[in-house]
Predict the structure.
Amino acid sequence: MGREVKGRRVSESPNILLETRGLAITFGGLKAVDGVSLALREGIITTLVGPNGAGKTTLFNLITGQLEPDAGDVCWLGRSIKGQPHWKIAQAGIGRTFQDLKLFNQMTVLENALTVTERRSWLWQSGGRAAAAERLARAESALEQVGLADHRHTRAIDLAYAERKFLSIARILSAGARLWLLDEPASGLDPRSYERFIKLLRDQVGRGITICIIEHNLDIVKGISDRIAFLDQGRLLAEGDPQSILSDPALASIYFGERA
Amino acid sequence: MLLLQLLVNGLQLGAIYGLTAVGFALIFGSTKVFHVAHGASFTLAGYLFWWGMTALKWHWLASVALAVVAVVLFGLFMERFIYRPIQRHEGAFFTVFIAAFGMQIVVQNLVGTMFGRGFETVSAELSRSVEIAPNLFVAPIAAVAIAVGLVFYFGLNLFLARTQVGTGLRALSDNPDLVRIFGLEPTRLAQVAFALGSALVVPAAALTAVSQGINPGMGSHIMLISLAATIVGGIGSLKGAAMGGMLLGLAESVAVWKLDPQWSEAVTFVVLFVFIIFRPAGFLGRAQNAK
Amino acid sequence: MWAYLNNLAVLITINAILAVTLNFVLGYAGIFSMAHAAFFGIGAYTAALVAIKLGGGFLLATAAGMSVAGLLSLALALPALRVRGEYFVAASLGLQMLALTLFSEWKAVTGGIGGITNIPPARFPGFEISSPPQYLVLSLVCLALVMWGVSRLVNSSFGRSLKAIRDDETAASAAGKNVAVVKTMAVVVSSALAAVAGSLYAFFLSFINVESFTLDTSVYLMAMVIIGGTATLWGPVVGTVLILLLPAVLSFLPGLPQTEVGSIQQIVYGLAMVLLMIYRPGGLWAAKSKAGA
């Protein structure tokens, strides 16, 4: 039971981790997101594609609670999270990277990975020394997995471009997020770093992480997607397996801007 | 009748506050620069107008023109030589604020050194009160202030709505990237915003010189009020800033009805707090919560 | 001569406490408080009243001052920090002006413009601090404690949360930080510690009035932090020393009219702030960094 997709077993009906229902938001007369209903299933990589300005990043902002929708709902593990504060949703297990990375530039690599594990807003964390050691171990492990362990005391702002991208992944890895929302994580990566990146994503998915990636580069899209969701002008035009989406001529013409 | 008197004073004060606040809101809204040196513009305008009238003995139009030229130059100077270099580096809110603040201190003290630290006024026919009803003393200056406020406010709105530059300023406020698409340069528009926003303080400063009097410290006082008015009215709304200024002017004046005059300034800040606690978006602002 | 230097040293130490604590919120958390002088004043007035009316010693007076300042800062922080940074600036300015009015007008409590006089010397169980050198020692001990406390916090998980928020508030939120609560805690800590300086000041001078707690004072404190260097432990101390020595230096320069010294001081600070922001935003004692600012 279960289809083989790109050499990995994908069960026919895995759990829905996150679901949006009719999500919509309008900015000054413009419908940035217009009735989007999307389900992200466990252990699956979904790519979100569409022309510029299609509302992909806005959709992420709605899911993570940075923006409050005008209509619709967002459900995480079956329960609505609409209206919850951004930080609470992050603590619930939804991790997110940003197009402009938003690293903690003046802090070191290790501090970046460590601070995401420190969840209490009080003057000290709970659990004493044992818990502190466990958090440090998690941060170190995340740095190992992205290959930044040697740079742990370098300031984020002093890292090379590809290393900065990996640091943003290390943060959500260290935080222990179950769902990763990645906003153009691979743009500008050299081929070697790109390969390393893809391998990292596949490893994580193998361990049960769910990933949704906004991506423009069609080669990347073809290479990693289990499913593709196509957004245009705020609307979800199509959602399905890569074969059917990528071979649809109507979608291709929208993507490449051939309509009037 | 006292209340009515205070209301009239409040409207006069409100017009002055409103104009200054709108100038600040225009600059902040279009360029996102927290131009706390706006108060310094007010001080410069007030003092140059006063100097023109009393020392140089020019006609009031010429004095106003002098003030306008100085203030526009100051605004453009800040934009070109202070804010732009900072924004090229990293332009954090912090850095811009401190630089503006430092400038405000410099101007305040330079003015104090050059012109003296006391209160100065420009005497004019307009500031002589006339008893228009039993116990109701109104100086024509009040009517002038309100009229001037209205004229400039609606003039500004017309400018923003009807001209290309005005539309560009509004677009800049909503989305800086869009502006280039319309063939306008964000830098040029920023300069217009600073020039225009700064110029708006001139009528307010001149009116203050004629009515209450000016002193070097008034820059920081008016800056506080403009800030408060922008928040009370709603960040991102010029109409809000004008309304906020008017409300604060009225509140400060009417407060004297029940409280000692020394507490009237405190009233402004109580109003500010009330808004921050219960309605941070202000009257008309777009709700901008910490994300 | 020694008396003068002693007094200057105590004042520098007291101001250094204020600068270090202001830097905690300004440099590490990126929060703009224009109300630091108000909390300084609240600490001073509370300590003075506890000493005079209740006969309290230094520890009780200081604890009282810290509690009052801390609670009041909660009242400022809770509403203002829910929204953007600009709101906090305005709200803190508002609080500073309100405090100023209260200090000047609430005669029953603060003595109005006349202030509070005849504050008894700082008492500890068993001994009294009465001579200037003793006050210097007391102030230095307090400064050391404050700097130790701030340094511990900055290098802890709380410090990392603050720095994360300063570096990128959105990303900090995305990392699960309840930004408003963290910022509020930072403001409360900084205000309570500022009250320590207030208490020292009240006992040392045995007289306080509103003149020491004005907006101008808040501005001086800002200048000390910025010029000395934000986000470093010693930067604010360097800034304090420079700024408090400046009047002395200026008074030795020939040709400067005495009446204008105050103005010239301020012009120097103002210009320093402007120039530093353009060329060296990290301040004079900035962390040695590769990438400029």
Chain A has nine helices and twelve strands.
